[in-house]
């Protein structure tokens, strides 16, 4: 039996404005198995968002890595150009990662808003197979990387920008 390991972004429920950043926008995985691979030891996420709308995002651990051994996970992220966010999530060498199959959030993203529109605007956030700077999205479990097909890419989500 194959479970879907699709990467998911919220379609509603997240909004911000120039005075109130978007906080805790989750990148989720439906299940930590694709039928061949299981668990989590690393993930690379190539995320794009509309240029000119958000400042430099901040990234923190989601429910899956944060629920494990304290200090076992690290995130490295950068925004090499406006509209691009590269995230690397990995387990420290002293631990084995997560062996279970339950899904949840991999990371949470905080987006400071720089655009002040005259009316509500929906902005699309996307996880792609390959980002604009060449980073490939990948989820690694045991034994190795999940199939790209199981990740359901590209995955899109929505953030609403409110006028002030």
Protein architecture, described:
A hairpin with a 5-residue loop joins strand 6 and strand 7 (84-91). This protein has a single domain, classed as Immunoglobulin-like (Sandwich), CATH 2.60.40. The strands form 2 sheets. Strands 2, 4, 6, 7, 9, 10, 11 and 12 form an 8-stranded mixed sheet that branches. It contains 1 helix and 12 strands, in the order E-E-E-E-E-H-E-E-E-E-E-E-E. The chain is mainly β and 164 residues long. The protein is 2% helix and 46% strand. The chain has one helix at residues 63-66; strands at residues 7-8, 15-16, 22-31, 38-48, 58-61, 73-78, 84-91, 102-111, 121-128, 138-142, 144-145, 155-161.
Key traits:
164 residues; mainly beta; Immunoglobulin-like; 8-stranded mixed beta sheet; 4-stranded antiparallel beta sheet; 12 strands; 2% helix
Give the helix tally: 1
Q: What does the largest sheet look like?
A: 8 strands, mixed
Average pLDDT, all residues:
93
Ends distance: 50 Å
CATH class: Mainly Beta
- Which runs of at least 5 residues are low in confidence (pLDDT < 50)? none
Overall outline? elongated
Strand % is over 45%
Order of helices and strands: EEEEEHEEEEEEE
Helical residue percent? Answer: under 10%
Instruction: Determine the structural class based on helices, strands and strand pairing.
Output: mainly beta
| Rg, nearest Å | 16 Å
Gross CATH architecture? Sandwich
Q: What is the CATH topology classification name?
A: Immunoglobulin-like
Count all strands and give the number. 12
Number of domains: 1
């Amino acid at each position: 039996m194959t479970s879907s390991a699709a990467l998911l972004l919220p379609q509603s429920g997240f909004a911000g404005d120039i005075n109130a950043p978007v906080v805790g926008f989750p990148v989720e995985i439906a299940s930590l198995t694709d039928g061949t691979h299981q668990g989590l030891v690393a993930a690379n996420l190539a995320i794009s968002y509309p240029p000119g709308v958000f400042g430099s995002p901040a990234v923190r651990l989601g429910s899956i890595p944060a629920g494990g051994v304290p200090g076992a996970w690290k995130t490295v992220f950068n925004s090499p150009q406006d509209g691009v966010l590269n995230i690397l999530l990995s387990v420290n060498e002293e631990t084995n990662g997560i062996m279970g199959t339950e899904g949840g959030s991999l990371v949470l993203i905080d987006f400071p808003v720089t655009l002040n529109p005259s009316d509500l605007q929906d902005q699309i956030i996307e996880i792609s197979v390959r980002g604009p700077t060449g980073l490939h999205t990948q989820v690694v479990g045991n034994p190795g990387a999940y199939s790209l097909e199981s990740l359901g890419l590209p995955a899109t989500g929505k953030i609403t920008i409110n006028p002030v």
